[in-house]
Request: fold
Amino acid sequence: MRVGKKYFWTRAEEARLVELWRSGIRDFKVLGKELGRTPRAIEMKLTRLGVVEVERKISSTTTAVTSRDLFTHEETLKILAGALEALREPGLDRLELQRLRILADIAQTYDGVLEKFERWVEIEDRLLEMDKQIKELQQAQTVQP
Reply:
């Protein structure tokens, strides 16, 4: 199965992932190959489902963020859907309309920023893996006569 850009998870895929995890398969790469997802996508989905607690700290000069601090794409879409549903109500005053519009704008912006954040985390993971492989190759070269 090809690992590619699949964004949405079906309930069947989620159930299969949880089933594989509970059967003892703990390697994100193996799970990713089985489900056609990246190891990072597997890690994130297991975290979002509450099956595994993975804490990633992002260092910054001002704050530290963990994956638990972030809304998921699904949660953001629920907020946006709630705002849209509220907008359908008749008789909203101007202040309520402004608040809902701001909420919808924030949810849309947040989702875009979250997507970029996830890509950066994936790139960071790849770089760390490459760095590890380079160190292993350097050690192997120094051992050989």
Q: What stands out?
A: The chain has a mean pLDDT of 80. The chain has two domains: 1-54, 61-137. Residues 61-137 form one domain.
